[in-house]
Amino acid sequence: MAVTRLVGECEKGTCATLYRVEGSGDLLVQGYDVENAGAVVGTDIPVGETVVRIPAEIIERYVREHLVR
């Protein structure tokens, strides 16, 4: 699966990052593992899915830099 890095918490390294999957437009999020996703109040995470935690700034920065003109 080929991906393009859109924006991250840091410019290099293994920080929280937002990627686009080439050819599909889907997004991948690299973030901090939420160990017990089922215990997150207000969610019902099904088998085969997971939850990651990322700084809100990642999404805000992407919107500012790529969607707002």
Automatic annotation (TrEMBL):
<protein>
    <submittedName>
        <fullName>Uncharacterized protein</fullName>
    </submittedName>
</protein>
